[in-house]
Amino acid sequence: MNQMLKKKLLAAVCSSALFLTACGGGDDGDWSFGSSNVKAYAVDADVSAIAAKHEILTYKMQSVAGKDIDATTLIFIPKGSAPSGGWPVVVWAHGTTGAADQCAPSKNVLDGSEKDLVKALLAKGYAVVAPDYEGLGNTSAPHPYLNLESAATSILSAIKAANGQYGSLSKDWSVIGWSQGGHAALAAAQYQKALLGYNFKGTVAIAPASYLADTLDEDLQTAQTKAAAALSANDAAAFTQAIGIAATAYTYAAIVSSGIKAETPSFQYVQSFLPVKVPIAELAESICSPELGQKFGVDIQQYMNTDYTKFFTYTALQPNFKADPVIAKYLTDNTPGTVKLDKPVVIYQGEADTTVPVNITTDLAANMSGLQTDVQLVTFAGETHSTVFANNIDALVSDINDLMTDN
Length: 407
Description:
- By secondary structure, this protein is α/β, with parallel strands linked by helices.
- The protein has helices spanning about 1-15, 45-50, 110-125, 150-165, 180-190, 210-235, 235-265, 280, 290-305, 325-335, 360-370, 385-390, 395-405; strands at about 40, 50-60, 70-80, 85-95, 125-130, 170-180, 200-205, 345-350, 375-380.
- It has 13 helices and nine strands.
- The chain has a nine-stranded mixed β-sheet, with helices on both faces.
């Protein structure tokens, strides 16, 4: 598979209309891009104060359909003079935003925890490459959500394109990702040898998506448990939270379905969703994840009306969808951490996470360790799916710095 991905990377580079010099005999030849594939990315004063460049780079990658497509990545380069050998690179792999074109980070404002992380990395002297992933930011190609090889190709192609465009970058790199991006970070670590001539240092994965079928089952069970406790206590706020957990689970199931369709165009949403719920699930291709979650939340509310006990009989999914061979294959093929990774991995996980449950990530880390991967799992009591990222920026950057300097 690494050899196949290497060929994809080289083919994408050589076929690019933006490629100005002929491809040489190897992956490490000199190559450059014209300025037409770079445009400014607007940031606030906090970021511009420490970033010499904040741009959107368009590059070529090969899609899961085997076609050369345009892809986009954000590029942030620190102010000042690059160290000897160039600015070391940290890839930021973003969390779930949705599968629609407008959900691409390059089409949205950098803010919140992602902004804090980028600033902290720049302040430490790292250039940041932050790909949108295949299909995001490109209206002519779908997004293969949680597809391991697609995520790896997106990241590795972005690194190579950035190194070709900007002469001040080192070939030393690491990757940090959250949620979907944690899955993508592990994918990049699995396939990193396809990027010849580069020096991969390791991975930090924050609440990475894995074991998707088990995650869905546990999330829906958590929603039911919380709803039962809320009704018993007459706690409206807790019951609303339970609805949100269920709606989020169905949202991810819909986006995964869109990812399966991106790889297998003959796939139909009715293979995973009940016919009456398909119109909502199909919105995964046209709206972003927060809006899709709201749609499922409203549907749950409408189903219950004023009989809140009906929450326990609501379902959007086909009863045996996991037995569908196309779905089963996609879930199996795109599980991260199933081979030994050659460089260290640090995983952050909140114990109060209702999106990626702690026991799912504990199993992932244990299985990776069983394959002799150097993996460290760090759990945080009381931290949720979002706060385990937001509240630990300094520690995350410290771990990245350790990876970049220790091996």
